[in-house]
Amino acid sequence: MAQVDEARVARVLERLEAGHPGSQLLVTDPWSIFYLTGFYAEMFERFSGVLLRAGARPVIFDNALYPIDAYDNADVVVFNDTDDLASVLMDRIDPTAPLGIDASMRSGFLIPLQEREAASSFFLGSYAVADTRAHKDARERELMRQSSRINDAVMAELPALVHEGVTEHEIASQMLTLYRKHGAQGFSFPPIVSFGGNAANPHHEPDDTALATGQVALFDIGGQYEGYCSDMTRTFFWGEPDEESRRIYDIVRRANEAAETLVAPGVRFCDLDRAARRVIEDAGYGPYFTHRLGHSIGLQDHEPGDVSAVNEAVVEAGMTFSIEPGIYLPGRTGVRIEDLVLVTEDGCEILNSYTKEPCRIDR
Question: Which CATH number do you get for residue 261?
Answer without folding.
Answer: 3.90.230.10
